[in-house]
Design goal:
Strand order of the largest sheet of chain A: 2-1-5-4-3
Number of strands of chain A: 5
Oligomer: heterodimer
Low-confidence stretches of chain A: none
Largest interface: A-B, 68 and 72 residues
Helix content of chain A: 40-55%
Low-confidence stretches of chain B: 262-347, 386-410, 427-431, 450-487, 528-577, 593-599, 616-675, 681-775
Shape of chain B: extended
Largest sheet of chain B: 2 strands, antiparallel
Number of helices of chain A: 3
Mean pLDDT of chain B: 63
Distance between the termini of chain A: 21 Å
Number of strands of chain B: 2
Number of helices of chain B: 42
């Protein structure tokens, strides 16, 4: 399994983190952990939606509460990291972890 | 006769390189190749040895031989990249490094090579970009065969000659069980590279699957010749496919006779022969290709560069230093200075003299030399300022007198007069002289300002004195000239008209009127404007076709009488031309096969769908001013069905300042008019684009927390999905549907991009690196994020935990124990395994070295807990970057302890590769300064 998947699985080590995906801004899934198939595509699409909004707002990250879970997005240069977590996971707690993971993942390409 | 295992010989060669015994390594490789001449690994090791030894040409050849056998050989691409970079060809080096990285994007050393040389080439813009080829490899290494196939196929659509991607595609197809397509791709590769080991192995396994043992054995035998130690085959073996592993893996390591020495391929001296196709030179690589287009086509054998014979290499001395500065070259000044000491390898621009000397005698020289030579061949004499031409003026005398000797290099440019005098009589004069002469040849007369009163034929052409005397007062801007050669005035329109050949149609209004005249039309007479041609009946205003008021195309007037006159009233409200629009529409449709009509046609047909009738200027001018507000101005049968058009637009806005949208204006242009209120409604119902997501509508429109936007509806409208929701709905405070969620920042303030307070808050928060939230809300079900999906994700994580792949119990920072508390816990209970593991995991990001020590303690003291730290060690590899060697060794030890020899070997290899890669780079860098 590649280093990217290891990074994403590392995020799943944390309580409350349900799945993690590395996507391109247009929703292409580069790597995923804890999710697969159509479910991954749905989360990827939601991440792309959130990416558009976050990018338009010139923000590095954003979160979206979807009821029984929360979607957190962190923008990188060419890749974004999307995490689905429990609603109880604080945005300010998960984003630094995501930043570390995305930095390592993005390091492959920059 | 001593026999050694092949693997031992390979190790000897590699160790010889490590110890600096490059000659010994080459000798060992020659012994190996004596028995296994196709062994790709031996060619690669020998290439490395040659490179270390400084025999770059041999190294390059050996690397190419390696690529012919294994197009995905990263060391070969990397080695060629280093060699080409060493030769100063950074673009090609970047291409090699790029391909190497795309084959395995996980390799940090490859990534750094690409980044480094990209920055050297392109400065700040030089960076590593994620390419499809790299993405295909990432998917492949992660086991996502479908995605790997898709990405590889897309790369090959753009770069069909990428052999390495073809191999990737074949392997991915084979992995996902698509044997037939894998066979096709593999066979295609083997047609180009018959010794490509991976396609051979893939085809062998596919034929084994199909029961064709003979074909399988044949392909496997060929593959064994290239991969006798089975290293490449081992890469293809997957855990769980035992039959495949039994088939592909070697039964026993072959031995070699220690006395057999491989005859090294003959060296080919440099010669001006590009057709050395019968040699075993490496394949040609297109250095000018794009990074994704580096190919190794076997049909184009590599030929060494040929130096032209009889031509001395150019050097800096040939052109001097004054014309070329070191800053003009993309080479450091030190390199230039170093190059200056090596004239045989200088690569300087030739001088003009050198070019002339090198030019074949039959070829006509270019530039002034060629021009003068051509004049010479035509019998013309070189310009002599002292004679042959008119007496130069004082200024010219002074200048010519101060001119140096008439050496051709310093020859001053001849004046216009000299050129004119030296021109052969049969040659047409250039500039105005030539124009006038040409007019003369055509029998035209020079311009006469009194041409209307005095026939031009009365005076002979080119009477310069008379021309000067009759300098027209009506054209004061034209200075009188004593000589016609100096008369630089432009010919008048009349002159040009007279000069025009009789059969040519004049341009401009003259031509247009003449053409009308030739078609029997008479000039427009304002007094006769009311006299309409009797053949063209005046259509009544209620004709729905003529009522369009469209500027009709130029009619074909058949009448030769007064009916041919153009009447300006024709362009007004009454059209004398009857047009069958339905027929024209049909013709337009036929002219655009397969396409929907666009532009006004679409608009008009859209109005047809609404039952709207065409607009009539007559209706507008007659009735619009009297129409009460709020009603459409189209009269009679052309009634505008706005009720239908605006069905569902219930909301009204009090904002009357809204300008009409472009759509309204567009409808206006085709005859659909709205009153102010209707126009406003139309503009309000314009579908929102994605950009509207950025607008601060929520804040500025005074929305409360429960009146946020529906994100999915905005998206659907932006994507053109048939969603009737519009801005009026979104801006409606009474919108019944309440979003499920809203997000706020830590202070409870709703975040919106239009709120400057929020901007400031976000900026300050962002500087500290903490979270940011974007104030959008959405119905999760409409995004497909229903509860069942979340449940499936939870179940999948639980499965991962049960499989032991993750622990899943680490507390998030800020929500659990701190590093300090964990340290205290370990100090209190040094033998507590979980405390150690928790501390090690917590230390990964901030203190990776300490974390590695803790993980080593766990390895030594808690053999049963090794699995728990594997994932954290994976994180540690990415954190430690350059110092990951120790982590790989620890992982190798862990896997070896648990019996996973393959994983252990991989990690040991990674540790060696990292070490070797950095040391090899140091060697190459050090050797070349």
């Amino acid at each position: 399994m590649g280093a990217m998947d290891d990074q994403l699985l590392g995020l799943l080590e944390y309580e409350g983190v349900l799945c993690a995906l590395v996507t391109t801004p247009d929703g292409l899934i580069v790597a995923a952990a804890g999710i697969e198939g159509d479910d991954a595509e749905v989360i990827g699409a939601a991440g792309s939606t959130l990416w558009s909004t976050v990018d338009a707002a010139n923000e590095p990250s954003g979160s979206l509460d979807v009821g029984s879970a929360s979607i957190h997005l962190l923008r990188g240069g060419e890749l974004s990291l999307v995490v689905l977590s429990d609603p109880s996971v604080p945005h300010e707690s998960i984003i630094p972890l995501m930043a570390g993971a995305l930095d390592n993942v993005s390091g492959v390409f920059s | 006769m001593a026999e050694v295992l092949l693997t031992q010989a390979v190790n000897q060669a590699e160790e010889a390189i490590e110890s600096g015994n490059y000659g010994g390594a080459i000798e060992t490789c020659q012994r190996i190749l004596g028995q296994f001449p196709e062994f790709a690994g031996a060619h690669r090791i020998m290439a490395e040895a040659y490179a270390e030894q400084g025999d770059l040409e041999s190294a390059r050849e050996a690397f190419h031989r390696t690529l012919e056998r294994d197009p995905q050989s990263i060391p070969a691409h990397l080695g060629l990249g280093m060699l080409t970079e060493d030769a100063g060809d950074r673009e090609s080096a970047l291409a090699y490094f790029q391909v190497a990285w795309e084959i395995d994007p996980r390799r940090r050393d490859l990534r750094e090579q690409v980044s480094r040389i990209s920055q050297q080439l392109y400065g700040a813009d030089g960076r590593l970009y994620l390419t499809r080829a790299a993405l295909a490899s990432l998917h492949f290494h992660a086991g996502r065969w479908d995605r790997a196939v898709n990405e590889s196929a897309q790369v090959l659509q753009e770069f069909p000659s990428r052999i390495d991607v073809q191999v990737r595609l074949a392997e991915a197809l084979w992995r996902r069980g698509d044997d037939q397509q894998a066979k096709q791709v593999g066979a295609s590769i083997l047609r180009l590279l018959p010794s490509a080991v991976v396609p051979l192995l893939v085809l062998a396994d596919i034929y084994r699957h199909e029961g064709d043992r003979g074909a399988a054995a044949d392909y496997l035998k060929q593959a064994r010749n290239i991969d006798p130690d089975g290293v490449r085959a081992a890469d293809l073996i997957m855990v769980g496919f035992d039959d495949q592993a039994d088939f592909l893996s070697v039964d026993s390591i072959p031995t070699i006779d220690d006395q057999i020495v491989h005859e090294e391929p003959a060296r080919y001296a440099r010669a001006p022969d590009f057709s050395a196709a019968d040699t075993d030179e490496p394949a040609y690589v297109d250095h000018s290709a794009e990074p994704e287009d580096v190919v190794v086509p076997p049909e184009a054998p590599y030929s060494p560069p040929v130096e032209p014979q009889g031509v001395r290499p150019f050097s800096w001395d040939d052109i001097g230093d004054e014309d070329l500065e070191a800053s003009d070259l993309d080479v450091p000044a030190d390199d230039l200075a170093a190059d200056a000491t090596q004239p045989s390898t200088d690569f300087s621009l030739p001088t003009d003299e050198e070019l002339e000397r090198a030019r074949p005698s039959g070829e006509r020289p270019a530039g002034f030399t060629g021009m003068l030579n051509s004049l010479d061949s035509e019998g013309m004499q070189p310009f002599d300022p002292s004679g042959g031409g008119p007496e130069p003026s004082g200024a010219e005398q002074g200048s010519s007198g101060s001119a140096p000797e008439p050496d051709w290099m310093d020859m001053p440019l001849p004046t216009d007069e000299e050129l004119e005098q030296s021109r052969p009589k049969t040659e047409e004069l250039s500039s105005h002289s030539g124009v006038l002469d040409s007019l003369d040849l055509e029998g035209m007369e020079p311009f006469d300002p009194f041409g209307d009163e005095q026939p031009a034929q009365a005076r002979p052409a080119y009477e310069s004195s008379q021309a000067a005397e009759v300098a027209p007062e009506s054209e004061p801007e034209v200075a009188p000239a004593e000589d016609f050669m100096e008369d630089m005035s432009l010919p008048s329109d009349e002159e040009l008209e007279r000069a025009r050949p009789a059969d040519e149609r004049p341009a401009g209004f003259t031509g247009m009127l003449s053409s009308l005249d030739s078609e029997g039309m008479t000039p427009f007479d304002p007094e006769g404007a009311t006299d309409l041609p009797p053949e063209l009946p005046i259509e009544s205003g209620d004709d729905p076709i003529s009522g369009h008021g469209v500027s009709e195309p130029e009619p074909e007037v058949e009448s030769e009488e007064s009916g041919g006159a153009i009447d300006l009233s024709d362009m007004g409200e009454e059209s004398p031309f009857q047009i069958d629009w339905s027929q024209i529409d049909g013709e337009i449709e036929e002219a655009i096969p397969g396409e929907m009509p666009r532009g006004y046609t679409d608009d008009l047909r859209g109005l047809d769908d609404f039952g709207l009738e065409p607009f009539s200027f007559e209706d507008l001018s007659a009735e619009a001013p009297e129409e009460p507000a709020g009603e459409e101005v189209v009269a009679g049968a052309d009634e505008l069905d706005l009720d239908r058009l605006t069905a569902g637009w219930d909301q009204e806005s009090d904002d009357s300042s809204l300008p009409p949208s472009p759509d309204v204006e567009e409808l206006d242009s085709v005859g659909v008019t709205f009153d102010e209120e209707q126009a406003r409604e139309f503009s309000e119902t314009e579908l929102l684009s994605a950009d509207r997501l950025n607008e601060p509508s929520a804040a500025e429109s005074g929305l409360t927390a429960g009146e946020d936007w529906e994100l999915d509806e905005l998206l659907s409208s932006a994507e053109g999905v048939g969603d009737e929701w519009g801005a009026s709905d979104i801006a409606d405070p009474g919108m019944p549907e309440t979003p499920e969620t809203l997000l706020f920042d830590d202070t409870g303030h709703e975040l919106s991009t239009g709120d400057e307070d929020v901007h400031e808050a976000v900026s300050s928060v962002g500087a500290s690196g903490t979270s940011r939230v974007v104030g959008i809300s959405v119905s999760p079900e409409r995004l497909g994020l229903d509860e069942s999906l979340v449940s499936r994700v939870r179940q999948m994580k639980q499965t991962l935990i049960e499989q032991g792949r993750i622990g899943g119990k680490v507390l998030l920072p800020g929500t659990g124990a701190s590093i300090e508390s964990l340290r205290r816990a370990v100090e209190n209970e040094p033998a507590h395994i979980q405390h150690r593991i928790a501390l090690a995991s917590a230390l990964v990001q901030e203190h990776p070295d300490d974390a590695l020590e803790q993980f080593r303690w766990v390895y030594r003291n808690a053999p049963d807990h090794g699995v728990e730290i594997v994932k954290d060690l994976g994180r540690l590899i990415d954190v430690m970057r350059e110092r990951e060697v120790g982590v790989h060794r620890l992982l190798g030890a862990l896997y070896r302890r648990h019996g996973d020899w393959l994983a252990a070997a991989n990690h040991y290899e990674e540790s060696l590769t990292s070490k070797r890669g950095s040391s090899a780079e140091r060697i190459v860098r050090g050797r070349h300064g």
